[in-house]
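Long-time lurker, first post. I've been practising inverse folding by hand and with some scripts of my own, and I keep getting stuck on stretches where the structure tokens seem ambiguous. Below is the full token string for one chain I'm working on. Before anyone asks, I'm not after the true native sequence, just a reasonable design that respects the backbone. If someone could post their per-position residues I'd love to compare against what I wrote down in my notebook.
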């Protein structure tokens, strides 16, 4: 589940995040590295990878999921026809994009269709295709009744804000967390309902507990 603010921002549930290595490390990346914890492959393999659609029943009136074919094609950086034979579900993936239709009316929310069960571990990804000012995370079902605001403004939502902070029960304050992110970044969401924690990754780099 995710909200985004900017006009023409686009997001989509993603399939895979890939880490990037760079010889130049920014101050923000250094801070993020210091915040990382040891997440063993054994532990991460216990998370159920889920794909979901956007729940149109609870979609903000300022968000759009039924993009035209021309709009969907425009947001892919690769040649559509060239990869269509390599990725059988490319059309399905493109149809799962969600776009903000206005920069007005503050924050908006879109909710996934998958409900999570206590005693399980879940993982999903959100690809920030275009734009900035995103909050990505999870919420209780009650948050869906107010889709025209950020899902984590109140106490039923927990999110990772693109300015490099957490958000829970607040519109403007949170703890420093991870790095900033924007369009073209992929955010992974790890929901551990066994140990009772929530943490995130950016482009494959896994951070410590956010909540």
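-- Answer (accepted) --
I ran through it position by position. Result:
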């Amino acid at each position: 589940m995710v909200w985004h603010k900017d006009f023409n921002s686009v997001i989509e549930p993603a399939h895979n995040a890939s880490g990037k290595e760079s010889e130049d490390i920014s101050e923000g990346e250094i801070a993020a590295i210091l915040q990382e914890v040891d997440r063993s492959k054994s532990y991460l393999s216990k998370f159920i990878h889920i794909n979901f659609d956007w729940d149109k029943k609870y979609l903000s009136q300022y968000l759009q999921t039924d993009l035209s074919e021309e709009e969907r094609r425009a947001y892919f950086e690769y040649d559509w026809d060239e990869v269509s034979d390599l990725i059988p579900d490319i059309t399905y993936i493109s149809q799962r994009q969600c776009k903000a239709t206005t920069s007005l009316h503050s924050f908006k929310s879109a909710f996934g269709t998958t409900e999570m069960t206590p005693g399980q571990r879940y993982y999903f990804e959100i690809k920030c295709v275009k734009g900035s000012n995103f909050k990505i995370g999870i919420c209780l079902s009650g948050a869906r009744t107010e889709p025209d605001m950020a899902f984590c403004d109140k106490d039923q939502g927990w999110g990772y804000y693109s300015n490099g902070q957490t958000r829970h029960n607040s519109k403007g304050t949170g703890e420093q967390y991870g790095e900033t992110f924007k369009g073209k970044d992929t955010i992974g969401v790890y929901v551990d309902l066994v140990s009772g924690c929530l943490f995130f990754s950016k482009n494959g780099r896994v951070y410590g507990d956010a909540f």
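A couple of notes from the structure itself: The two ends are 16 Å apart (CA to CA). The domain at 2-18+26-209 is CATH 2.60.120 (Jelly Rolls). Happy to go over any region you disagree with.
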